[in-house]
Design brief:
By secondary structure, this protein is α/β, with parallel strands linked by helices. It has a single domain, classed as Rossmann fold (3-Layer(aba) Sandwich). Helix content is about 40%, strand content about 20%. It contains eight helices and eight strands, in the order E-H-E-H-E-H-E-H-E-H-E-H-E-H-E-H. The protein has an eight-stranded mixed sheet with strand order 3-2-1-4-5-6-7-8, sandwiched between helices. About 45% of the residues are buried. The model has no long low-confidence stretch (mean pLDDT about 95).
Length: about 230
């Protein structure tokens, strides 16, 4: 299924990596940014890298939200609340928001191997609280690093998808499995994003200790294929 997917923070490493993978899979992508020109330039670079005629455009954040059925949050946690408040009047009912955010202490000058305490419980739950009624939220992709996304080879990672809305969970899972090598797993309710987000800090520490950039997570013994 093809849909128009907007990526807020799409000029950054995580956002542009997801855009690259999904555009290669045939999704229609809009790169969102505070700076529309920067978003357009990033889209042009990705089109040139992929070749052919991939559907990737750039726009400012508000225009991205207005044009898309699915919007992916890839901005740093420290900027999420301000951005969501800025866009509060722009969201369309029925939009699905996929939050990839992790409240790492590094976003406020602390250690990358620690997470911040979030009043709502998790970054994804904060996002849900700040969105208007009629917009669904799923949490996913927190444990899939930007460096892995930027490469051409398959990833080796399970993607935990958490949501209180089954439709949002299905869409996030479909997008996850559009990334070669990734496997979407039902992570349960949105509140479980608290656990998934904390795994990112653990993976960063493992990567540091083993001098790697590709540590991911795999769950074994499940009766489903990769």
């Amino acid at each position: 299924m093809t849909r128009r997917v907007g990526i807020l923070g799409g000029t950054g490493p995580e956002g542009s990596g997801l855009a690259y993978r999904w555009a290669r899979a045939g999704e229609e992508i809009i790169i969102g940014s505070r700076d529309a020109q920067r978003a357009t330039a990033t889209a042009a670079k990705l089109r040139a890298r992929i070749g052919g005629a991939p559907k990737i455009e750039g726009a400012d954040n508000a225009a991205t939200v207005l044009q898309c059925d699915v919007v992916v949050m890839t901005v740093p946690f420290s900027g999420c609340a301000a951005l969501l408040k800025q866009l509060k009047s722009v969201w369309k009912p029925g939009t699905v928001v996929i939050d990839t955010t992790v409240p790492l202490a590094a976003t406020v000058g602390g250690a990358a191997t620690r997470t911040l305490g979030v009043w709502q419980g998790s970054a994804a739950e904060q996002t849900k609280e700040l969105l208007p009624q009629g917009v669904s939220v799923a949490a996913a992709f927190q444990n899939l690093g930007a460096e892995l996304l930027s490469r051409d080879e398959d990833v080796d990672c399970d993607i935990l998808v958490c949501s209180d809305d089954e439709g949002a969970k299905r869409i996030a899972s479909e997008l996850a499995e559009n990334i070669p090598g990734a496997r979407a797993l039902n992570g349960g309710k949105l509140e479980n994003a608290r656990i998934v987000e904390s795994l990112t800090a653990l993976l960063i520490g493992i990567n540091m200790r083993y001098k790697s950039h590709s540590a991911g997570i795999r769950f074994t013994g499940l009766p489903i294929k990769k």
